[in-house]
Amino acid sequence: MAAPLDGVLSQAQRESLEIVSFIFHIIEPDAEVDEDVVFLDEVELQAKQKVFFLDRLREIAEGTQYVFKQDAVHLKEKCQQLLDEPHRFIEFSRQITTDFSGRHKGHMAAGVFIVSVVKYLATAHDWRQLVFVVKMDKQPSFTYSYEEKDGRRVAVINEVQNSLNESKNAIQKSALIDVSDQFAWDVLAFDRVQRPGLGDYFRGFLGVTERQQDSVLTRAAHVQVRKWAKKLTAEQLPPGEDLNTFLGRSLNYLSDHDTFDTDEYLNAVVRDEDANRKAELVRSLRDALAEGGVAGQQFRPQAGSLRKSERKQVYLTYEGVTISFEGTPEAMGMQIEPLGGGRSRVTIVTNRLDAKG
Predict the structure, then answer these.
(1) Which letter does DSSP use for residue 41 in this model?
(2) DSSP sequence for 186-243
């Protein structure tokens, strides 16, 4: 049996995602009746709405990795039942929603709780299933029309109370759950309120703990950039770029940011004035980060956890001169000027030069 995969869903797997079953139940904390959940029996999704939820699903498919705690079985058990007994999908979805709603100790915002079974193509002809849960807050919106009155156009505005905004900002909490042994993680989760972590009640509902520590993820990100950059050919490199320029910007990002964001990290590491080449480099680095289980994870970078050798960028000249530093050449006052024929001029501006014996 193959070992579980460290990474998240690949780009091809995310693109193959399809909705198998879908329902949401309405959370009404201010309802006059005792029950704060209004259970539905069916939801009819239009084509545009399917695209919206699949797009959100593809985003969470790169989320922070968690594993189930050994003593937390409720959600894992219910998700397994969803897959094993699809004819009882609505029944199990109600139980999951009730558990989620009941765990919130304070006032919960009104909205909907979505339970969905989705499938993806793991390999050719091998479809696998996952469970997708989402809490979306209700966001009142306005509709307008106008009418002619005494030669004047007068707008009429109406408020729509039970409105779900088709924006990813409307999603407060979401999780993608795998109860198989396909991956080393069990849950990919996101909590907009508590990012980059999870709120206590959402963590309790999921029954999970982080699969990896921040320091492990920091090192994994930097190591993946090194592996990726080493494989680039001269034709793939932007002018003036090499292994050390990528590593220097990676180190700077991990040192200067309180929260790791995959898109920001990719944009910081990859610099290129050629938009098409940059897009291809970003895509390939994202794939490398996904394979290493880093893409989509939200964590607090711990640059101090990098080994000294991992923090160093090193150049060795043909004449035997070694140049070693941390960060980018620009930050060190160093400029590398290509002269053609493989020759380069290296200029270093320093406030002081000491001889070391």
Answers:
(1) S
(2) SEEEEETTTTTS--HHHHHHHTEEESS-HHHHHHHHHHHHHHHHHH--TTTSPTT--H
Neighbours of 40 (CB within 10 A): 15
pLDDT digits (tens, 9 = 90+) for 48-63: 888 888 887 887 776 6
Listed ranges 62-66, 231-235, 330-334; the one with the highest mean pLDDT: 231-235
CA angle 44, 84, 36 (to 5 degrees): 50
What is the reported pLDDT for 85? 95
> For residues 19 and 120, is the Cβ–Cβ distance under 8 A?
no
Residue with tokens 């880093």: 294
Mean pLDDT of 320-334: 82
Residue 83: name the closest of 96, 100, 101, 67 by CA: 96
Tell the burial category of 252 from Cβ atoms under 10 Å away from its Cβ (0-12, 13-18, 19+): middle
What is the per-residue pLDDT for 142? 57
d(CA 21, CA 136): 18
CA distances from 177 to 8, 9, 128, 173, 331 (A): 12, 12, 12, 13, 43
Please report where in the chains the tokens 């915002």 appear, as a residue.
109
Residue 33 has pLDDT above 60, yes or no: no
List pLDDT tens digits, range 182-218. Answer: 888 899 888 887 766 788 888 899 999 888 788 888 9
Q: Which amino acid is at 278?
A: K
* Residue 10 amino acid letter: S
Closest to 11 measured CA to CA, from 333, 291, 336, 255: 291
Residue of 334, 338, 337 whose CA lies nearest to 348: 334
pTM: 0.65
Task: Let me know how many helices (H) and strands (E) the chain has, helices first.
Answer: 10, 14
Q: 323, 335 in Cβ contact below 8 A?
A: no
Cα(316)–Cα(304) distance, rounded to whole angstroms?
Answer: 25
Does the pLDDT at position 249 exceed 70? Answer: yes
